[in-house]
Amino acid sequence: METLTKSNYINGVWKESVSKKSMPVYNPATLEQIAEISYGGKSDAEEAIKAAKNTFPTWSSKTPRERSTILYKAYQLMTEQADDLAKTITKEQGKPLKEALGEVKSAASFLLWYAEEANRLYGETIPSSVKTKRLLVIPQPVGVVAAITPWNFPASMITRKLGPALAAGCTVILKPAPDTPLTAIKIVKILEEAGIPSGVVNLVNGDAKGIGKAVLSNEDVRLITFTGSTEVGKYLMEKSASHVKKLSLELGGHAPILVFDDADIDQAVDLTLASKFRNSGQTCICANRVYVQQSVYETFTEKLKDKVRDLRQGNGLEEQVDIGPLINEHQKDKVMTHLRDAQEKGADIYSPHNDNRNHLSNGLFFPPTVLTNVHKKMKVMHEETFGPIIPVQSFQSEDEGITNANDSNYGLAAYIFTKNVDRSVRVSEKLEYGIVGINDVFPALAEAPFGGIKQSGIGKEGGHHGIHEFVELKYISMGISL
Ligand code: ADP
Question: What per-residue confidence (pLDDT) applies to 4?
Fold first, then answer.
């Protein structure tokens, strides 16, 4: 076990928390304690905000190229340290090592993309209706940013916020999830090694509520960029009102998959499996509900069950493991509640790995499960499960499929399987989601805008769009003598 007594990073110094308290970090596959780290709170966050405020003028006045060079160096270091970082992710988060490596590559790609994008944050000139005026629009960094991140992608959720924030010229207080602080610590060390000046990135681990209060009550924090539950997102939104803080929120999802009768069924089965069981179903864009057109429903379901039977569950550090544990007891209880609810309401359960549970009883494993005979009143069909349960329902017409898919308060991602081009366009335009995958379930790329509508959030991460969350547009009107 590692003891990291100084695991908050404030104004360029690794520190213990003001209260001297610490907290444990566990491996969800074994329930062993793997580290003890500093447990910060309100006072630590206040100090971090002060440091970020003080450094903002110097960081924001650096040239984009200077900021870009540091981000590029961080990208290189992250790529070099990918194996080590991936192991840390697997140990504290549980996902299989191959997925963790994929996450590190994705995390690094955000640093690379925003190293490049820093140099392309263009303004505008507007043709004026008045002869003696010249109109300019310039983007300027919002100021101090609080980045609050979740545990499901402990590396990429950080870089997709820090990349654009730093590229734009903002300074940052990072608060990672308590389940996965070790990855965050390593990422901040990488930024330090890359030459980020003191005070530009500050890391505070610990008491979410206390750190949240410090951020919310401080007028100097101009933007909160948050990924997490809709519940906490709403709380942050409400409490940000008094300072009219900017918000960028990536909240929950309840992604539908529509499999049409003209789909390549084997492809649909493989990608549904990949979408649902990646990260044990703990992904905000993973499939939550699958709707299959009646004529191919039986074939699809049987093939899906066969593939689920072949999944290998276990400790992600072991070779060949496809599916790891859930992150914590709370998450396991929630998934179990969804399963029981579906069972009570008449679902048929296919859970071929259930008898392995003794073998895996040390960890927080939940067997991958297929539910059929489901209906919309079941929790799994409208609440985010965040676990390896996949409900499959049939539909008749294209319109019925679309209506089912749109029947949600969430609007993050939706997927369509079809080989009909007309249908793919028609349906994707009608889906009320921020992201649509057509014969594709991995839409999250550094160069593309990721974000939801409805209760799935506000704003975009990734792409040239992502950096705009971190700037204000200033309009300059110049009166000139001709
Ligand atoms: P989950 O249920 O998936 O853990 P949360 O929304 O609770 O999602 O957590 C996402 C992030 O938000 C974590 O870093 C968590 O510590 C943080 N968080 C939770 N509650 C608060 C709060 N009141 N203020 C600030 N951050 C919070």
Answer: 86
Q: Which of 99, 117, 250, 398 is catalytic?
A: 250
What are the tens digits of pLDDT across the range 215-271? 999 999 999 999 999 999 999 999 999 999 999 999 999 999 999 999 999 999 999
Q: Quick one: CA torsion of 196, 74, 233, 229, rounded to 10 degrees?
A: -140
Q: Report CA(389)–ligand 1 centroid distance (Å).
A: 23
**Tokens standing for 83?**
């194996």
Q: In what order do the strands lie in the sheet with 133-141?
A: 124-126, 133-141, 471-479
* Low-confidence residues of the chain: pLDDT under 50: 359
Residue 434 and residue 456 in contact, taking contact as beta carbons nearer than 8 Å? yes
DSSP 8-state secondary structure symbol assigned to residue 253: -
Q: Write down the pLDDT at residue 349.
A: 96
Whole-number Å distance, alpha carbon 67 to ligand 1 midpoint, is 29
Mutate to test the pocket of ligand 1, among 157, 227, 230, 232 (most ligand atoms within 8 A of CB): 232
Is 170 known to be catalytic?
no
User: What per-residue confidence (pLDDT) applies to 354?
Assistant: 76
Q: How far apart are CA 294 and CA 392, in angstroms?
A: 11
Pairing of strands 221-227, 246-250: parallel
**pLDDT for the residue 357:** 55
Which numbered atom of ligand 1 lies nearest the CA of 236? 24
- Centroid of ligand 1 to alpha carbon of 209 (angstroms): 8
Choose the catalytic residue: 16, 170, 284, 469. Answer: 284
Instruction: Give pLDDT, residue 361.
Output: 64
Provide the strand spans (E) within 297-388. 348-350, 369-372
Residues 6+ apart with CB under 8 A from 291: 256, 257, 258, 259, 392, 393, 394, 395, 401, 404, 405
Q: Whose CA is nearest to atom 24 of ligand 1?
A: 212
Domains of the chain: 2-251+456-477 (3.40.605.10), 255-445 (3.40.309.10)
Ligand 1 lined by 229 (C-beta under 6 Å): yes
pLDDT, residue 363, reads 80
pLDDT in tens, 442-481: 999 999 999 999 999 999 999 999 999 999 999 999 999 9
Per the annotation, the verdict on 284 as an active-site residue is yes
Of 205, 213, 139, 218, nearest in space to 177 by CA: 205
Q: What is the 3-state secondary structure (H, E, C) of 197-242?
A: CCCCEEECCECHHHHHHHHHCCCCEEEEEEECCHHHHHHHHHHHHH
| Residue 228 alpha carbon to ligand 1 centre in Å | 6
